[in-house]
Amino acid sequence: MSAVPRDVGVVIVAAGKGARTGSTELKQFRWVAGKPMLLHSVQAFHDRDDVAMVVCVLPREHAGDPPAWLFQCDVERLLVATGGRERSDSVANGIEDLPPECEIVVIHDAARPLVPASVIESVIAEARRGNGAVPAIAVADTLKSVTDSGMISGTIDRSQLWRAQTPQAFPRDMIERAYTHARANGIPATDDASLCELLALPVMVVPGSERAMKITDEADFARAEALHTLKA
After folding, report:
1. How is residue 86 annotated by DSSP?
2. CATH number of the domain that 220 lies in?
3. Strand segments (E) across 149-208
4. Does 2 fall in a domain?
5. Fewer CB under 10 Å: which end of the chain, C or N?
6. Angle, helix 117-128 to helix 37-46, in steps of 10 degrees
């Protein structure tokens, strides 16, 4: 049996302050579902044989002295990078630190600690086909446009609307081209695929998961704990 090529590089964005949780502790370092939030994601990617390197992008004050539990992981496939002013700066820093053999780049938000292995597999498989890949869930609720005064002004067609998640995966040359263009033109982004869309590069949707929820505020911690108890 031939060995699996280690050609996937992962950038986990964990450089935010998480102020909306109301806690003085960094959100990505807080425990949820049995371990620190960031550790869930690092271990999920290290479980894959094709992952060559995981780069954790941390706030500047923590990048030089990461929490000790982070080194429970495969330290041979772990790097720590320093976050930038905006999320897009942090992602670009992480991509720059990936070794040359990483031909596929996966970008993930640490605030989504419970992403299933099946979602990770789907985005990487799509990137191997030469496309960008975004896990997403079709919008199920009726959407209304509302004026500043609170009056409904219309109903929005939801048939082509999807809620994007991470991890997002791309051929390395695609995402590097997108970030080079964004930096040259001062374009910030909270979503990596949107930078590829600006250049009309192909990005496909793959099935997302409610388990890949983003922890934003304090109530989300309880929701994540409940999801963790359910069968993946």
Report:
1. S
2. 3.90.550.10
3. 152-156, 162-164, 168-171, 203-207
4. no
5. N
6. 50
